[in-house]
Each structure stands twice: as structure tokens, then as C-alpha cells.
Recover the amino acids of this structure.
């Protein structure tokens, strides 16, 4: 998100999200989050210099307004789809799953409840099943914190300004990934930006090479004529 100077400007940005979701639907929100995750978003640009986390906008959105089906239902449904796809789909995405679990450990997103209940029941029936299913002990730990936060938060009806980190285990979350999260995002944003710059440079060199080849062909044609 571009740097804003006042709370009113920030709220104005957050207030655009429900209308955007209504405009594009669940699949459109899903595609938006997939594009935003690597650090690219034309509609709600990220702050490159500050290393803004791509899902911070959702964290702030839920904390500011709480949850209501008419405002956030489409977004929650899209997050549910991405959780399922990144964890169990044909193209698993551990980094996307990690960031979604971190988001779900921080704010209440009711449409994801059944997904976390499935993981909880899987682990209860067979200890270690979630780690085997997700392929990582770290992801399994994130999933546990997220489902404890989601299910506990929903049972208590947490709403506006609900921060589930304090409801789960703030010390563990902070020591294991919350501080490294920002640094990881900054590095990822810098890498993505560098990739774009390199691609533009490569495209420019390719264009120059093509132009040079055309000039040589034209010169040869003129000589033969």
C-alpha cells in the first residue's frame, strides 16, 4: 500500500475493498490475492520501500471493520479456496500457505472455519497427520496456531479490532516467525522488483538486438540493390 498520511486516507482505501470484491466476485478476489502475493497490485499498490507484506491490507481490513458476511464474505471464500489449493491442490504453494496461515492466526475469517476444523480433526484422529499432509513441521505449527485462533475467536464472536495473536500464543508466534516475517517480505519484494528490472533490461536488449539485425538486413538489401 502506498504510504498514507492520515487515518482518513487509510480508511478510504480499506473501504474500497468490499466494492471491489462485489465487482469481481470470489474468483476475481482469488486472482487478485494470487497476483498481490508476489508483490504486484495495480489497484492497491504496495509500499516497496517499506517492504509491505502483501496480506497486511486484509489484516488491517478485518481488524478495522470486523467480519460481516455482506462485507467480507467474498474475501473469506476466496481465502478458503487458496488455503485448500496451496495445501492440497495439484500445485501446492508452501510460501502462499504460510502467509495465509499467518493471516488466519491474526484475524477472524469465518468462511475458513470448516477448513481448520478439518485439519484439527485430522490431527486429533492421527497425531502428526497434518505435518505429513502439509509436508512441513513449520507449516503444521502455523496451521495449529491458526486453527486455535480461528476456532476460539469464532466461538467467542470476536469482531472489530480482533487480534487473534494475543488469543493463541503471542510469545511463540513472535519468536518463531512474526519478526522474521517482515524481513522475509522485504527480501521477497526486493527480489521481485529486481526480477522485473532484469526482465525489462533483457527485453530492451532483445529489442535493440532485433533493431540491429533489421538495420543490417536493410543495409545488405540496399547494397545488393
Amino acid at each position: 500500500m502506498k504510504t498514507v498520511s492520515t487515518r482518513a486516507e487509510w480508511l478510504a482505501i480499506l473501504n474500497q475493498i468490499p466494492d471491489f470484491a462485489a465487482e469481481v466476485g470470489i474468483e476475481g478476489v482469488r486472482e487478485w490475492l494470487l497476483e498481490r502475493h508476489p508483490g504486484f497490485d495495480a489497484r492497491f499498490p504496495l509500499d516497496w520501500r517499506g517492504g509491505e507484506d502483501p496480506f497486511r491490507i486484509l489484516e488491517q481490513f478485518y481488524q478495522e471493520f470486523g467480519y460481516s458476511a455482506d462485507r467480507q464474505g467474498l474475501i473469506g471464500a476466496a481465502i478458503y479456496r487458496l488455503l485448500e489449493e496451496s495445501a492440497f491442490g495439484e500445485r501446492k504453494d508452501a510460501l502462499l500457505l504460510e502467509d495465509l496461515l499467518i493471516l488466519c492466526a491474526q484475524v477472524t475469517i469465518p468462511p475458513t472455519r470448516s477448513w481448520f476444523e478439518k485439519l484439527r480433526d485430522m490431527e486429533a484422529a492421527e497425531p502428526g497427520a497434518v505435518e505429513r499432509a502439509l509436508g512441513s513441521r513449520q507449516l503444521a505449527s502455523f496451521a495449529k496456531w491458526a486453527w486455535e485462533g480461528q476456532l476460539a475467536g469464532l466461538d467467542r464472536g470476536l469482531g472489530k479490532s480482533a487480534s487473534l495473536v494475543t488469543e493463541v500464543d503471542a510469545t511463540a508466534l513472535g519468536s518463531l516467525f512474526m519478526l522474521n516475517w517482515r524481513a522475509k517480505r522485504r527480501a521477497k519484494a526486493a527480489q521481485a522488483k529486481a526480477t522485473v528490472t532484469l526482465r525489462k533490461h533483457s527485453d530492451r536488449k532483445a529489442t535493440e538486438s532485433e533493431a540491429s539485425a533489421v538495420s543490417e538486413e536493410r543495409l545488405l538489401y540496399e547494397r545488393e540493390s
Q: What stands out?
A: The chain is about 75% helix and 0% strand. Residues 155-179, 217-222 have pLDDT under 50 and may be disordered. The longest helix spans residues 170-224. The two ends are 59 Å apart (CA to CA).
